[in-house]
Amino acid sequence: MREEGEGYDDRRDEGRRGTRAAVHAASGGRLGAAHPRQEGPTDLRLVPPALAAWATSAVMLDAAPAWVTGTAVGCLVLAGVLMTLRVGRVGRVPGAMTGGRSGWPAVTAAAVLVCVAAAAVSAGLHGADLRRGPLPGLAERYATVIAEAEITSDPRLVRPRVRGPAPAPTAVLFEADVRRVETRDGATMVTRTPVLMVVDVERRRPSSSAFSASSAGDRPSPWLALLPSTRVRVTARVVPPADGGGMAAVLRVRDPKVPEVVGEPSAAQRLAGRLRAGLREATDGLAPDARALLPGLVVGDTARITPELDEAFKETDLAHTLAVSGSNLTILLVLLVGPPGLAQRVERRGLAPRLGISLRTTALLGGALTLGFVIVCRPDPSVLRAAACGAVALLALATGRRRSLIPALATAVLLLVLYDPWLSRSYGFLLSVLATGALLTLAPRWSAALRARRVPPRLAEALAAAAAAQALCAPVVAVLSARVSLVAVPCNLLVEFAIAPATVLGFAALATAPWAMPVAKALAWCAGWPAGWIADVARTGAALPGAGVDWPGSWTGAALLALATVALLLAGRRLLRHPWWCGACGVLLLLAVVQPPPLTRVVTGWPPPGWRFAMCDVGQGDATVLAAGAGTGVVVDAGPDPVLVDRCLRTLGITRIPLVVLTHFHADHVAGLPGVLRGRQVGAIETTAYQEPSDQAEFVRREAAARGVPVTRAAAGEERRTGGLSWRVVWPPTDPAVVPEGPNDASVALLVRSAGLRLLLLGDLEPPAQRALLRSPAGPLLAGVDVLKVAHHGSAYQDPGLLSRAAPRLALISAGADNTYGHPAPGTVAALRAMGAVVLSTDRDGALAVTGAGAELGVAGD
Q: Which of 473, 453, 472, 451 is CA-nearest to residue 462?
């Protein structure tokens, strides 16, 4: 592409400059005075240097010093040769240095080589920083040290996904620069080394079987209150980093008490912390989803976002709305300078011209706003990219040369990878640049094509933006999640109109909270409505049975997805000429995503007609359903994942749940409770009386209280009935003197009757409780059941006497594929088959549904 004026004579250049100057002068008088384009065709000359610097930084971070030096020197020498040859042609080729197109390749090649040399030097220096100092050697020995470190990022609470009976300990993570290290032998070393610090959050140990009012794990950790630039002194174990990522080591802090602060944060960070704390206080009274999402949307504070809400946003490719991104800065700058669509025109909109503020003053105000935005929201990759783009655009505004945003994006990429080469390996930075590039290149063309086919302009712009960003980002997202979302585009369209008001009102609440909290609360309440809508869209989209499809999580899979996307786009161009075919394809996609139960049953045969009992495939956990009439079922356990159990209940057509029985409080049985409660009429929740682990018991109470569902306790001898379904609680006993050895032995066990079908559901009972159950008054009732839900995911710990007494015809086991516990145990499976039982498990057979009774007893898999 050519810069403006190339190929034209000097008189036209002078005339154009004069016209532009006159227009600029005229535009100061009134808004919308003229609409001439500002700079001519798009200038792409900065794109090759930016891409070359990006690639060089990614490669050279691990390179040896000799390679870095050789690359830098070689590139500079070649650049010098090219420019020397170029200068030598000036006398022979008039105009070669003043706009002739023939000189463009040589200049661009020289620029690329210079940028490669600069990137190699920068990456080499940053990579060497990780190999210098004492920490790499200490990490190899897993040494314990006393370190003094300066925090460089916001501490964040990490709640790992459930992988077994209890989730991994919750931890506080933050990045820091270690300034001083003291070893056990008394040696003290001064350094400046970037590390990742991991602090395990203290948990209260189980103390009794009674309900507890609170637990230490529920109280905010004092580590979360630390601000960037704070200096702390910790005793930690130094371990090697898992994947580099710009960190020389990981410091695991085992003492989660109040941190020892040896240096206060800077004044700017104290102000930012005050603003962020004010926003959290202003949102305290909002609904749970809005309270969690709004601070993340405005300033990147994600401490309140639950794992299941985070998973819902990932499933729908809405994760970019969970944390602050460049779009937030764009919205704020639009308020100041007007819509970006006028960036190439001289007319000005926004608040600045209405207040009589000049162009240059507007640019200065925009720069101050950008700087404050980065300080308050923290310099994450997308924030840095947006700030750099904004700074370049504001500089162009101040000088009166408002160019296309593509050179601004290229400049931002170039400056950022030179400043921090580790961004070249950041998936977040890559996705941010891809999304922005899609909005600047593909989206305008697609929007124009849609408008040409009589699509309303606003809808065409929104649809083109969402589709373009998805087309370019989907391959990278597939690498990260091994999944392709089919609802990403519609979900992004549905939340698009809510992001701007939530962001603007949220920032208004942020700014007013330190001085007028009632006003901030009112603004936060208004912002809570669009924020709640965004969360509802994410949850609803993630719960759809066909929300996504599994995809190879590798770069080969990304390449295949890119090829599939190109083929789909080529086919889509032809389909746009045939509206009826477009409509038919849209209906088919809608049916594939929604998967209405009647249609799914016809196509897949699942669930089978007349099913009595269903075991959901929720991974390593338990979630089962007892049919109690049309659309009605009793749910026993909720599994570890809200999305999976919600999806299972949707495919079964369950909309009313008279009772949810949670056999015990291990996370693989209760963590999915929000998915069970979502969008369904739930009568009550029944649990065991043994309230441990206490944090999971508290979680159940919070979820129930938030939805107004009563919680009761089960006891042996209790009998209930709903429709044609009846059941009896056979364990745990009511005798307070009987103290179970742990949560598993306190599991609620049920003997169920459903129109002649007898089922025994044992929760996670282990041999001591199984033997006690045999000796209990309910023992004789357990003989000869039709279906046995095998205890504890089919583990090896089973009482042979109970299995012999039950003598099931059908034994069902809920276990996760490739789990690390060895479930189901081969010995348990062999013992059940030796008794004549048919043994099926979800890790091999998927979801299972029992039909019929007596001679007609059958089972079907999903």
A: 451
